[in-house]
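Quick note —
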Amino acid sequence: MAENWTLHTSPGAANDPVFVGVGEIRTGRFPERGFVEALTRVAILALKDAGMVPRDIDTILLIPNLHSAADQADLVFSRMVEELGIHGSCKSSYMVHSGGSTSDNAVRAAHGLIAAGHAQNVLVLQCERWGSADLNEMITMLSKNGIPGEWELPTGIQFNAIGAMITRRYMHASGSTPEEMAAICVTLRNWANLNENAMFYEKPLTVERVLSSQMVADPLHAFECPPMADGACAFVVTSTENAKKRGIGHAVRLAGSGGCVSHYCLSQEPDQAVLGWPLAAERAWNQSGWGPQDADLLEIYDSYAAVTAIALEGIGIAPKGEGARWIAAGNGDPGGRLPLNTNGGLLSAGHTGVGGGTALLVEGIRQLLHRAPPKRQIEECRRAIIGGTGGSYMDAQVLLLERTKLGA
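Predicted structure written out below.
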């Protein structure tokens, strides 16, 4: 049985942290778009969405990039405080980093700061330029970073190979077919076709095309590997009390949070077809008071299709061994029973490095605020499951978000 940790805030409490605004710009390859320019644009968009101006922000949490040490150094040394014109009034600017699960941990950091009274309005910022970065440098980075130099790097392991091993193990354990795995990519593309900010907007995909694309790392074809992209997004967190004072009628709160760090070396993961999802989900359910049957949408990390299928089983959405078939049956599609990755996910909206999970989180918040474009807004959605994972799928992180009414 998982430990029954509890959140130290309750719905409607003055210090209960809530999400009140999001910002995002187009994902793809935009070499002419500057790094700081993109961060500033999404910051202003998120603030406008929240009904705020830069001077309202007292804390900035930064999600790092992997494309440039120089750009990252600028962030560490408070570049964005000055760009937003809040030097002097901003109390703190710092970085949170855990790879693809960074957004989950940034939420926890913002939640703790506000609940404890250390911050009033927190702006979380992310930008990545994987699509425009030097390709050779990106290949080197994805072939070395986070892969144990003593034990796994000498064998030629890199991230597509890691994705391939997890996929092969999952297919063996579940009996899933190549067609079922490819269908997950098609579901994500169906959502991307509704998202004007997605890298593959209005670019339809079929199972046949996925399976006829170039083999990259058996059994993964090119369309089953995440496309590197430029992108940026942001969100604003404040307290329930502050939101009410601003006349905000509805917001999104964190109902539960659970995580499990299961390994560093992939070879030390006891079962690559399970990973840390069951324990992470149980910890989150224990906090929230609701379960998988209560969710209205899913935003689950999808750098490879198998990662998402495994997560759905561990979270309790699909029976063990049925994750890929659950998606292939159309359950997560537009109009399906439980919408999955409504922005198109990493595989079709674009993989923005550490920000891939942030984009899914931002989409979940947007949906619960009922501010998505009409063609992809999930009608009357109230609860969302957010799932993130980092590195060689070293951890599983689950956030349970719910829409809350703040007005009288």
